[in-house]
Design a protein that fits this description.
Number of strands: 8
Order of helices and strands: EEHEHEHEHHHHHEHEHHE
CATH architecture: 3-Layer(aba) Sandwich
CATH topology: Rossmann fold
CATH superfamily: Alpha/Beta hydrolase fold, catalytic domain
Number of helices: 11
Radius of gyration: 18 Å
Helix content: 40-55%
Distance between the termini: 16 Å
Structural class: alpha/beta
């Protein structure tokens, strides 16, 4: 049987009509959010998605020789439609923040609020240099070597070891062919960042950054300073994968934000529609 949609895991909440959709970064999976589940399940319905080629989203049809953001965003929208989600809070990580930017441009009505963890925004000199260095090494280094090298560049300190090891383990599920298809997204990468950075942000947004995220932090600060609807919080003792480095602090910040920006009245939710389940 052909797989035509991404792998998704849901956690239903009998007392809430609101959804939180989690979008991981390149090389990640639903396991990226393992330290968020217990904190968010008491308050929301949760939808965790494995992006194409990641986690259990393997051999999705139709296949493509090259990827673009239209393909990746359509994959996500298909899952949302399957679960009849027409509005949600979104929590994204790293490259997932870029995918979220494209999703919000194409489907603005979907977004009740967005949280960008380790967000990637307008490309400054450091970000451009990082991306170009990655593209250069792709020419002659095996993918697994690439990911190991750049995981240390992004998360260089001993206190980042847990997030580094979790992410490296997830990334090993990608083949070199799959990885190179994702690298092809860099053809649109800077253009998308520039468009999102310079447009009006018409939804409440929070970007949560580790103070040790030396590659992406300054760009995130500039993004928050430019847009009144965007808040920024910096976390001590955290690097790029801040939701794993300091999960308790991250969860507290994220929950406070989503609680502040509820988009439904809980007492309007019919109990007959509620069910408590886990589906994959």
């Amino acid at each position: 049987m052909k797989k035509t949609s991404l792998n998704a895991v849901t956690f239903r909440n009998v007392s809430s009509k609101e959804w939180i959709v989690f979008i991981h970064g390149a090389g990640g999976s639903t396991a990226t959010w393992k330290y968020q589940l217990d904190a968010f399940r008491p308050f929301y319905n949760l939808l965790l998605i494995d992006l194409r080629d990641h986690g259990k989203s393997k051999d999705i049809k139709p296949e493509f020789e090259k990827y673009n953001f239209d393909i990746i965003t359509k994959d996500i929208k298909t899952v949302l439609d399957q679960y009849q989600i027409d509005k949600a809070h979104f929590i994204t990580l790293s490259f997932g923040s870029v995918i979220m930017q494209d999703l919000s441009i194409k489907h603005p009505d979907l977004v009740a609020s967005a949280i960008f963890a380790g967000g990637i925004f307008k490309a400054n000199v450091l970000i451009k240099s990082f991306v170009q260095l990655a593209r250069f090494f792709n020419l002659f280094l095996p993918y697994k070597w690439m990911y190991s090298i750049f995981s240390y560049l992004l998360m260089p300190f001993g206190k980042h070891q847990k997030s580094r090891e979790i992410y490296k383990k997830q990334a090993q599920k990608l083949s070199s062919t799959e990885y190179m298809k994702w690298v092809g997204l860099y053809n649109e990468f800077f253009r998308l960042l520039n468009r999102f950075y310079n447009q009006d942000i018409n939804f409440p947004a929070l970007t949560i950054m580790g103070k040790d995220d030396y590659i992406f932090l300054n760009s995130a600060k500039g993004f928050a300073n430019k847009h009144k609807s965007v808040l920024i919080k910096e976390m001590k003792g955290a690097g790029h994968i801040c939701n794993i480095d300091q999960p308790e602090i991250f969860n507290e910040l994220a929950l406070s934000f989503t609680h502040e920006h509820k988009y439904t009245q809980e007492d309007d939710f019919p109990a007959s529609q509620a069910q408590s389940s886990k589906a994959g």
